[in-house]
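Good morning C.,

I know you're traveling, so I'll keep this short. The sequence:
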Amino acid sequence: MNQTSKSAITALAISFVFVACNNEEKKAEPSSADSTQATTPKTDTTMQNPDLDATKVAPGLYTVAKDTMGIRVLNVLYKPGDSSAMHSHPDNVLYVIEGGKTEFTGKDGSKQVLDFKPGFSAIGGSETHSVKNIGKTTVKAILIEVNRPNSAAMTLDPKMDATKVSPNLYKLLADSLNIRLLMATYKPGASSAMHFHPDNVIYVISGTKAEFTGKDGTKQTMDMNDGMIAVMPSATHSVKNVGNKTTKVLVVEINRPQK
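The tokens, ready to paste straight into the viewer:
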């Protein structure tokens, strides 16, 4: 489902302005959210009011999984009937693990209901709101907050772009606000060409054992367990699935300088 909205659409504790992959504007359909979308660029608003920190005002709903390098990853869990106090997020990325129906209230009092599907992902600009699960299922997601200025940290070499050198393994889902979402899918035995990632976050959807080879030829084997979250510095490497099952990993590339 490709969507564009000229007003901010609140989505699981972040507000999204949807952009179709082909850049053709379409009328927003706020009743359902089941596909990967990206935002249009917004003013840099990386500074966050600590009094509106989701983990402080709603600690039972938002918990910190990782916090390093100007990147914070939150586990989000809303059971049916759960609701949060008003809170804010800087520019961010959302990935929905378990979907459901949620009601969002903006700081101006406006309300919107969205029905999220598992696998929904999006890049979103900063937003302040409260959230309530008005459905019958638990909503589970990860939210990646980017506390970095919205400017490119480096000029990326397209010859080292994972989606270009190994397009059968890396698919581009969204690209906005100097953030890219990639889905990496490696079948057993599959291997990539040497490629580069800027600072990034990985979320392992389905895991296996992977072998990483650095540009100096060093090798490292890693167990990629289901649900694993890691914040990684920029690196050049190739990857091979040395396990016995297909692995699927969400890769969030953040090409922004640290403060």
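Safe travels,
E.
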